[in-house]
Structures are given as C-alpha cells and as structure tokens.
Give the backbone structure.
Amino acid sequence: MKQGKVWLVGDIGLFTLKGMEVLSQAEVVVYDSLVGQGVLAKVPSSARLINVGKRADKHTMPQEQINQVLFEEAQKGYRVVRLKGGDPFLFGRGGEELELLIAPEGNMEAVKNWIIKEHIKCLLIDHQLSSKYDFNGTEFAFYLKDKLPGFPYLIMTSYPEDSVDEKLVVKNAIYDRKILDAHEEEFTEFCEQLKQMTEVYDNTVQRYKERYEALLEKKNSESMTGGEEEELKKVFNILKAYGEVDEVPSAMLESGLSERVDKLLGELDRLLKK
C-alpha cells in the first residue's frame, strides 16, 4: 500500500506555489469553518471533503479527534491536506507549509530507515505509541540519539511527568499534547521552535559535509595526520547514518600511516629472506 502524507496549508491569501500544488493533488481535504469558499473552489472535484468546523473558541470537533482523522486517512494511503484559516506561523512567515508523514509499522530500525528515506527534518513522537509498535516514543527517542546523533525530535504526551521520570530524554524535549490546540501565540511559539530545530539540523549536516570534503582532499593529497584520519572515519560514519554519503571502498578510510608501516614491514621481510 502506498504511503500516505498530510500537509498543513493556509488561507488562499497566504498561499505559496507549493501550497497550490499540494492542494491540487489532494485526495482528502480536512478544513475548518474559517476557510473561505475561494479556497474550497481550488480543491479537486475528486477529493473528499471533511469539515471539522473550527470557529474561534468553538469547536465542532476536538483537536485530538482532528489529529486522529488526519492520521487514519494518511494510514489508508491518501494524500491529505489540512486546510487552516490563515495560521500566522505556517503560512505568514515565509509562506512555508508543514508536511507531516505517518511512520510505517515495524521495529525501531524500520522507522529510522524511513526517516532517512523520506528526508525527515524533525520528528514529533507520541510517548504512548499505538499497539503496532513494541516500544514507546521515549524509548525510540533514546534509540535515535545513538543511531542518528543530533537528529531533532520532540516528545508529545498527555502526561509529561511520565516521560521525564524515565530519564531517557531531557525535559525541554517533552511537550504536553495540549500545545496542538493552544492559543495562537503559544502555538506559534511552538512552531517557531520546530522551525529553528530543523534549521540547526540542516546547518549541522552541511558543516559535516563540508568538513568531510575537506578531509577527503587532504586524504587524496597524502597530507593527512593520524588525528585527521580518525576524524574522517567519524564524520563519514555520521553522514552515512543520515544517508548523505554512499558506500566507499574501505581502503579510502584506512590510515595512511598503517599503509606505510605495512609497506616497510613487507620490504623488511623481503630483505630478511635474501
């Protein structure tokens, strides 16, 4: 079955070309009552519309139930668009849309591989995952720290103290799920943090790539020190974990000093046999 996706897209007055493109390909559109008819007119006639009727402080569907609708439709393999009535962060600051992907079933390694394949930049992890996983969100976050060092994530939970008590992740990485239905200012601040986390991640990976290229140049010019040999291996392994570099011959990562020692030992052995 194909992998479903969810996009959050804002009001027509704040649309970007990307937002228009996403909406034109939607198979399911979940919208609230603040979305105007001009926006709905852009929805493909083949798409299924779901009105969650959100008006100011009056909700016809609780946020948690809206999230469940998005999750279930994406699980069915549909391209789902959540139309929101002009959210200031998602659609006013640079016109960026937030794309959500639903992780596949499987063990921790399978989900980690999905992160790499889909080029995920940040992960919101529910502490109490569904029964299709044999681990909880906090355990997976702890696993990620080892397998994808520096990868940004936040733990979402209705009981923040439970995740903190496990002492597997830092307290500021844990959020009450109520933030998803918070007032505009608080929710905007939360979204800003997500944006900053992805920017830091992108910049960190870019720094690693630049350092990797510089070290490879030194390797090829045979001017590399023993410490730089070790650094090259470390940087290569980090980038490989993130899927940023391909496999390379192991000889490229072997120490030049080791090669020279082997050559000298071979020459000594030849002389002794004479």
